[in-house]
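Hi W.,

Here's what went into the run:
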Amino acid sequence: MDPRPNPDLLFHGEGTSVRVIILDESLWADRQAFLDSIMKASTLAGKSNRTYLALPKSAASLTDARLFQERGIGLFTYDHRTVEEALPARYFEMTTAAVSKTDRAATDQFENEIRELRAQIDTLERTVQSLSEELMSLKRARSPEESLEATPTARVLPPVAVVDNLPPYFAGNPWVEVLSRRGREGARIAR
Amino acid sequence: MDFGTSDFKFGPITCGDAPRVLRNRGYFPDRDSIMMRALNQAPEVVVGDDVPLYLQSSEDLTSRLVYPMRNGVIDRGDNKAWRVVNEISRFSLDMFRPKSERNFEGFYVVASLSSVSPRYMYESLFETMTAAAKDGLVKAATVISQPFAVAIGHGVTTCVVVESGHGNTQICPISSYPIRSALVAINRGGGEANSVTAEILKDLGYGDLAREEAFVRRVKEDLGLLPLDLERAVKAAKENPAKFKARLKVPGTRVEVDFGNDSWQRFLIGEYVFNPGNELFQSYITRGMPRPKDVKIGDTVFEGMIDFGEAIVRSVERCPVELQPLLYKEILLSGGNFSWEAPEKLRDFATDAPTKMKALLKEKGIKGVSVKMTKNPQHSVWHGCIIYGYAVPEDYRWNWERMEGWLPVAA
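Here's what came out:
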């Protein structure tokens, strides 16, 4: 973790956001730091309505402003007395695609919880259905008017799980048997 | 792999009940950007969760951000769209490649496409899998239609699947196999509901907001209603606009839409999806709203103006007579375009998609039908793909006539 405090600034007001990435005066001669600032500004351009890079005046004279102009990045130059806008920043409409990681994480969590709940409900529904069928079978078996031999047996669904822990949507699904016979019968070609 | 119009859902059986989900899109970054030049690394196309990190100005989005399956079909020459499909397929396979399994010979991949996808889309997808097989990612591949996958995921072997997405609607009878000769395609989907919503917003003075697709979609979802009987609903809403009040305020903004005395227009939004032929829509069409047209994509003609009830009847009547009653007994609705809800206090006038569909069929003389939403509309296609991949024997080879079977792609 970088121990240095982050000097960058973000301003909000009247529905507009402005971000300023600051290259520290003590670091402007450091090529890596200089490149880092430029790349950071480039990445963040469009994430705020306007994005500026603030350079010491001594560094600004060595910089080709056209590069920033093409990308819509503005330039401030500063010394110990003044700050001047050397190049205005282009105004970017904010896109809805820039979703904060926090929002995304929260949304993912909700979606996961909803999926789990749905899976539990599916399992409960199948269990209830199965218990209901068993109960009906037992009632028919105990009825004095009916002989056990005459009672039609409940249709037995083909075993699904050869492997343990198949997902719940496999349980009782007739397609498992139908598809397993593909190529084994004189299957008709549906036209 | 479920290549949906908005989302790409993928994953092996070990994912359990829910697949992984990515937006089905790719971004082509500006390779001349200062960052790309400085880093000397410029991926041609970015997919997955990294896309927002590369997005720049909104002016770039239309050309650089590509949704390949927006209308269910990719043009043969749309190289960018195919590039996105290739990249997103590889991304998903790489994500689940076993890290330390020496005997891994590649996945059996089941991909799902729109039932109206022409043959070249299948061929291109097989090419993608063949290329992935060279890296040991795929052993065999197959492609099934989305309605077929829905029927498998739902667990019904004889049914009619009505799959409706953003761009189109497909009606596909299934009887152990898809009955492809009975397929009916409609050039109408959720996008049409967006169009009529935008026209309503313009009429009410919200022209600026009507230009933002995401906002229009939100108005559709929050304020749009599906009427059981349009004329009756409109009459009631005009007589008592306060009861049917349509108002939407976006939290954290000053953006607000209020239909006021024109709240009856909420019912036009849902009706247009199911039955655009109503004369109430004529004024919008006269003033320039695009009318759903008949179009031919690949080998399939998509009808524009046919109502959903008529389309289902037409499809079923292409099937053997003895099968028809069984098909009407299991009509499955799938896709986000059927997510209509009726507010409690308006249940006398607004309804949900299954009830509306039954009403449309009753008008055509078809009674005693059963219409349901798929149990898990978000994941039923993916469930169907997993079941298909698990159950179909690996020696059942791909055949272009029946459009089923495994195509071995591993070297």
